[in-house]
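worker-3 :: picked Sugar phosphate permease
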Amino acid sequence: MSQLDKNKIKKLMTYRYVVWGVLALAYIIVFFHRLAVGVVKDELINAFDITGTTFGNLGSTYFYAYMLMQIPSGMLADSLGARKTVTVGTLVAGIGSMVFGYAPTVFWAFCGRLLVGLGVSVVFISILKVQSEWFKESEFGTMSGITSFVGNLGGVFAKAPLVIMVGYLTWRISFAVIGALSIVIAILCYLFIRNTPEEMGLPSITEIEGKEVKKSSGKKPDLLKGLRKVISNPKTWPGFVVFAGFFGAFVTLSGSWGEAYLVEVYNIPKVKAASYTMSAVLGLAVGSIVIGRLSDAIKKRKLPMMVFGVIYVICWTALVFLNGGKPPIEILMPLLFILGFTCSVFVLGWAYAKEVNPPEIPGISTSVVNIGGFFGAALLPPLLGKVLDRFSDSIPPIELYHKAFMYSFISVVIGFIFIFFIKETNCKNIYKG
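worker-3 :: tokens ->
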């Protein structure tokens, strides 16, 4: 290998973290918007005079947009590439955040939330696409976990720090500021992201790993044909259901109704309540990186999903049933942290999706599985909102939230059952065609 080749490899190994880092900044914004609405629930209800059901639908608008955009996001990532896709998406999200912040009516709040969901929906799939081009196959689970960890920092900012920010700036100005920051990040995306090492005249990861490099015909993959392959592959769907069940339940707690539950059941201040749900988000962040790394280290996907999935079910069992739905406050912080930590096992579903489908369309395969999480996250919060609206005047808060969170518990159990249908890949692509 020549000195020039060594220099190119060194540059690739360095610059890939620049590409990933800028994308990670965009992903922090994704998570902020994912969980921020729950923190300003009271402000939104007062500003627009809406019910709990309408609030749940307002929060879910993000997830519906995100969910519907996952397959188009995969196609965009596999055709236009991450650079253009994320730049435009983050720009749209920034505009949407400003529209949401200055919405004169609830209609415009829904419009802003829709734009945010559409904009941020393209970020994660593009990150997975970039990881498949800039990182080794053996690093994919680890990098997916690190990505989820960094993204969850946005969820942390959407808890107690956002409560403090809203206290100083009002909720409207806070969301406008986040919108402006999103536009700055969009500019950084265009300046620094490159879709593949080859765009910079660098060798591909495949070449560095010593694998056979297939000569390209110059044609783009047939995306519709690829989509049909992914959808018709029965191995795709267990990961979809696991993500839907686990993440849908997590969002009802961390992004929609968790703070209200803690304030009304435990009679604690709003900032303190936000710090409790923040522990769940921190757990998700830490778990993402630990579980992703562990999976790559032991060369297993199904085993860690099964082990941590059991603990996740136990955590929800304690939250919903222990002491009638009011666990002792002394154990609440660690319980929520462990709940978030073990929920993060869904990150393995993205690597699994890539490993059971054609290797040339990682964007599409991961996007189909990714729909599952946002289907659950869109469906459950309004469902809980209907329960809360219907029974809030007739039963005590502890019984009220026990009844509502029962739907989250059922969602988790369904997700866990589908882990049994996951096929072990040993961290390699096993697609047979």
